[in-house]
Amino acid sequence: MKKILYLVVLAAIISLPACEGPEGPQGPPGLDGRDGVDGEDGEDGIEVLNLVFEGQVTFSAENEYAIGSQLEIGQGDNLLIYLEWAQVEGESLWRLLPQTVFFGEGATLTYNYQYTSSFFNVFMQANFDLAELEADWTDNQRIRVVLLPGFFVQEEAARIDVSDYDAVMSLIGKDESDIVPITLK
Q: Within 13 Å of residue 18, how many CA atoms lie on the same side as its CB?
């Protein structure tokens, strides 16, 4: 009896006509990528303009141990500033600011920065007279300014180690040839 019932249900399913209704609305556009038809790449993604700038400065009493520059920084964007801390085997060792140096007898020096939507500055602070510093700490300091667009932060926030200069450069797809000089005042 069960076999006959299964055969009747199977015959009914096979004999039913296929149902087809009107076409639905257009879906959202997909991501660019492989075309799939001929194996060619799809349209390129967005082109990120140059985001890395470099300058050299001497901190002094004349500039109040601070330098700065105009730079348009979009809402949601982040600004990272690195200081060339040393040369190791001919390569620059970059450290993300702020950086604090501890001298003997509780003396501290901090390199730091701040920014707005149109301006940034890098400055030195200490719990002693900065004029007492040797030239190694103030003269010809190289800095790199990295403008990190907000969409990078939103998409990659979980895996960004912003203290690693090389990792940040890799993330934004830039290398040494992409660095633009900036005038610091």
A: 1
